[in-house]
């Protein structure tokens, strides 16, 4: 089985020892991704942009996403993301889970992890 590793060049990839995405077994597994900005909506948009870029490098797309997990320190912050997520996945919504938990840094308000079909 061929494994393709995709790096986004983020500071934590080298520091922690992981890559943005791994293509294996017919799927693209994208690591938990945080975004930039002051609000949860801004962070959600930029995280989806980073994820979309990784999927594109793997020959996939948000449309081919089959599973998504959202991690938020405050579940009340999830609702402002709904229109952004609905727009991003459109007519191809994946199976989804939302988990309330602490993230690696208190400035982050959302982390998104996806699995998509490869190719």
**Main pleated sheet:** 6 strands, mixed
- Provide the structure class: alpha+beta
CATH superfamily: RutC-like
- How many domains? The number is 1
Report the order of strands and helices.
EHEEHEHEE
Strand order of the largest sheet: 1-2-3-6-4-5
Low-pLDDT runs = none
Q: What's the alpha carbon Rg, rounded to whole Å?
A: 14 Å
**CATH topology call:** 60s Ribosomal Protein L30, Chain: A
Quaternary structure of the protein: single chain
Give the class-level CATH name. Alpha Beta
Organism: Primorskyibacter flagellatus
Pfam family, one: Ribonuc_L-PSP
InterPro entries: RutC-like_sf, YjgF/YER057c/UK114
Protein name: Enamine deaminase RidA, house cleaning of reactive enamine intermediates, YjgF/YER057c/UK114 family
Based on the model shown, name its key terms.
3 helices, six-stranded mixed sheet, 119 residues, alpha+beta, 6 strands
